[in-house]
Amino acid sequence: MSASALKDLNISQPADLEKGKDNPVKSCISRPVLNGNKCVNKEENAPPVCPDAGANGSEAAIADVEYIDSENLIDLPDVDASLSTLIKRLDSKDWIMTCEALNNVRQLAKYHKERLQELLEPLVPLIVKSVKNPRSALCKTALMTCADIFKAYGDLMVDSIDLLLVQLFLKASQDKRFVCEAAEAALISMTSWISPSLLLPRMQPYLKNRNPRIRAKASVCFSKSVPHLDVEGIKEYGMDKLIQIAATQLSDQLPESREAARNLALQLQVFYEKSQASTSDISDGTPSDSQDAESWEAFCQSKLSALSAQAILRVTSTPKEGATVSVSSAPKDGVAVGC
User: Fold this and answer.
1) Which end of the chain is less congested by CB atoms within 10 angstroms, N or C?
2) Could you give the CA distance from residue 16 to residue 13 in angstroms, rounded to a whole number?
């Protein structure tokens, strides 16, 4: 070999080694998450497939992850095969396999919910496990699964809701926007498809949670669920209990909690005044001598401390435009409520 050839070889080898240092992970095998036989809506900024990708500051290959809208879900080609391995795949250490299984849950909830219902008890803890996963793509897929099973099973999810609530509230308040949006959508589905008479008692303890972000999201969902109660539902739950909740949240440290409390107070004022007017209409038609005692102000003062009553009356005496809402005479199914 000539001297010049040897020189060229010596120059090229260090260059190749430097390239290898800069890119220790050259590629990761990406398996598409299938919607039946079809792939759609791939996420370009999903985390890498390889568990070691991204180490030592290296640029890692990006895995393709699809997020399928509920309306675009298609039926499974082999339902029996999917059901027989569903629990095992949901508990897999392979996150791509878990994403596939979660999408299968969504497909089964849409097209075969009676058959999937038998697996709900072991299914929900595994969905929660994926929601808690630090990998954002897996977390978002699990949150989308929550939204779909709330819609599919409604009140049947109440017994499992405690496992999900903390995680939904936390994910809805985190910084990653696309995870936050998925959690918000799941909360909307929850408050839309689960009866408020069943859901409100489950959410109430979280209004006193030590984590202010959990309190804030719980407050918002609570205030958005109350209007779905009918008149009898609010009476059964207790106006005095609801106004005490609103007064407590008005002094919370987070603005989001305080705004939710203001909205709740305005909703309760509307209900109370309509209830009083309705009672007056069905009476003999003569004005009540105790009208002052039945006023909103008197009600607040009778149920709250002086400072709390003053805070509620200050809010409700100057209602914001568009904040006043009416209480329905009957609950509506599937009405979207933003949390």
Assistant:
1) N
2) 5
pLDDT in tens, 232-256: 889 899 999 999 999 999 999 999 9
Buried b (16+ CB within 10 A) or exposed e, 19-31: eeeeeebeeeebe
End-to-end, the C-alpha distance of the chain in Å comes to 74
Instruction: Please give the distance of CA 78 from its chain centroid, rounded to a whole number.
Output: 30
Please name the residues in contact with 138: beta carbons below 8 A apart, sequence gap of 6 or more. Answer: 95, 98, 99, 102, 130
Q: Which amino acid is at 17?
A: L
Instruction: Report the amino acid identity of residue 26.
Output: K
Question: Nearest Cα to 53, choosing from 75, 21, 26?
Answer: 26
Selection from 209, 201, 218, 210 nearest residue 158 by Cα: 201
CA quadruple 302, 308, 314, 316: dihedral positive or negative? negative
CA dihedral 144, 145, 151, 153 (to 10 degrees): -160
User: CA angle at residue 204 from 200 to 205, to 5 degrees?
Assistant: 145
Distance CA(181)–CA(307), nearest Å, equals 37
All residues at 6 or more sequence positions from 53 whose CB lies less than 8 Å from its CB, including other chains = 25, 28, 60, 61
Closest by alpha carbon to 62, among 71, 50, 74? 50
What predicted TM-score, i.e. pTM, was given to this entire model? 0.74
Question: What are the residues facing 196 on neighbouring strands?
Answer: none
Handedness of CA 257, 258, 261, 263 (dihedral sign): negative
111-126: average pLDDT: 95
Q: Which helix (H) or strand (E) holds 273?
A: helix 255-281
Q: With 50 as the cut, is the pLDDT of residue 292 above it?
A: no
Is residue 56 very low, low, confident or very high in pLDDT (cuts 50, 70, 90)? very low
